[in-house]
Amino acid sequence: MAKSNSSGSFSVIGADIVITGDISASTELHVDGTVNGDLTCASLVQGEGSSVKGAIKAESARLAGTVDGSIDARELVILRSATITGDVHYDALTIEQGAQVDGRFAPRGSGKAQPQSPLAAKPGSAGDEPQLSIAT
């Protein structure tokens, strides 16, 4: 990439591509193939048939495939077709009904992920609290 910080630019890993090794991108990354390694990018869009085996770090991520590793994202959307095995750290989280997650959820910056239930929210605790929404 000649211009790594160009607005509107993105990179695509096609469905027929298998990458072994870590990936770092300063822009949006669309993954339809298989990545065996850690993935760091500004924005991640994961296709339904794709697989990531490694940690994901992104400002925003929209996951629809399989992830086997931890996830750290400011804005995270987990679609119903997603299957995630690993701990999830987030600032804002949306999970579609039907998504499968085997791991612990925690707001970013809180240290270790602790099991949390959206029903166990403390009354009157708003403001800087991370947002969790369940999409139907």
**How many individual β-strands?**
15
First and last CA, distance: 38 Å
Q: Categorize the overall geometry.
A: globular
Radius of gyration: 15 Å
Strand content: over 45%
Helix vs. strand class: mainly beta
Give a short account of the largest sheet: 9 strands, parallel
Pattern of helices and strands: EEEEEEEEEEEEEEE
Helix content: under 10%
Description of the structure:
The chain is an all-beta fold. The chain has strands at 10-13, 18-20, 23-24, 28-31, 34-36, 39-46, 51-53, 56-63, 66-68, 71-78, 83-85, 88-96, 100-102, 105-107, 131-135. Strands 1, 3, 4, 6, 8, 10, 12, 14 and 15 form a 9-stranded parallel beta sheet that branches. It is globular, with a radius of gyration of 15 Å.
Summarize the structure.
This protein has 136 residues and is an all-beta fold. It has strands at residues 10-13, 18-20, 23-24, 28-31, 34-36, 39-46, 51-53, 56-63, 66-68, 71-78, 83-85, 88-96, 100-102, 105-107, 131-135. The chain has no helices and 15 strands.
Topology:
Elements: E1 10-13, E2 18-20, E3 23-24, E4 28-31, E5 34-36, E6 39-46, E7 51-53, E8 56-63, E9 66-68, E10 71-78, E11 83-85, E12 88-96, E13 100-102, E14 105-107, E15 131-135
Parallel strand pairs: 1-4, 2-5, 3-6, 4-6, 5-7, 6-8, 7-9, 8-10, 9-11, 10-12, 11-13, 12-14, 12-15
Question: Which structural traits does this protein have?
Answer:
mainly beta, 9-stranded parallel β-sheet, 6-stranded parallel β-sheet, globular
